[in-house]
């Protein structure tokens, strides 16, 4: 009987946690979309729950996960090169340049290059202060990627 009660308590706790997490993500999505709108951007929520928006013709993504964490990403197409040693070397070289960003290879046949910046937040709304910096960091990393890529041409 004690085991059944313990299992029920655990299941109820997990369900409550899942609902709280889902609510936190919905609030983050709303906050991010409201902020983007106030800054003149048009944002939308994709099928994964990520926030998609355009900046100077390029698409960026914000990953809503926790109120004390902010993550922004940019993806580049890599269908031509695939998982070549050249691409792996460029990713490794690009990763060593900016501490605030990371570069990774994603997808089957390494079809995407992801440039990401993430940070912990002291206060949930601090992402507003970091937003432009995150875009600049990603753009710097894209430029660095292109410089490294050009070395292999």
Describe the structure.
The chain is built from three helices and six strands. The chain has helices at residues 2-38, 85-95, 127-151; strands at 43-45, 51-55, 58-62, 69-77, 101-106, 112-120. A six-stranded antiparallel sheet has the order 1-2-3-4-6-5.
What is the helix/strand order?
A: HEEEEHEEH
- Rg (CA only): 19 Å
The main β sheet shows up as: 6 strands, antiparallel
Shape field: globular
Provide the fold topology.
Blueprint lengths: L1 H37 L4 E3 L5 E5 L2 E5 L6 E9 L7 H11 L5 E6 L5 E9 L6 H25 L2
Helix pairs in contact: 2-3
Summarize the structure in short.
The chain has helices at residues 2-38, 85-95, 127-151; strands at residues 43-45, 51-55, 58-62, 69-77, 101-106, 112-120. It has 153 residues and is of the alpha+beta class.
Keyphrases for this structure?
6-stranded antiparallel beta sheet, 3 helices, 24% strand, 153 residues, alpha+beta
């Amino acid at each position: 009987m004690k085991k059944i009660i313990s299992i029920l308590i655990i299941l109820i706790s997990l369900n409550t946690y899942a609902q709280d997490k889902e609510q936190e993500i919905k609030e983050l999505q709303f906050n991010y979309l409201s902020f983007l709108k106030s800054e003149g951007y048009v944002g939308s929520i994709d099928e994964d729950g990520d926030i998609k928006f355009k900046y100077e013709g390029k698409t960026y993504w914000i990953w809503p996960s926790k109120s004390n964490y902010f993550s922004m990403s940019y993806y580049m197409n890599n269908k031509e090169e695939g998982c070549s040693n050249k691409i792996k070397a460029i990713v490794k070289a690009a990763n060593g340049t900016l501490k605030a960003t990371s570069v990774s290879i994603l997808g089957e046949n390494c079809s995407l290059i992801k440039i990401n910046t993430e940070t912990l937040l002291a206060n949930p709304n601090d992402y507003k202060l970091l937003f432009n910096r995150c875009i600049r960091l990603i753009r710097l990393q894209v430029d660095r990627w292109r410089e490294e890529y050009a070395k292999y041409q």
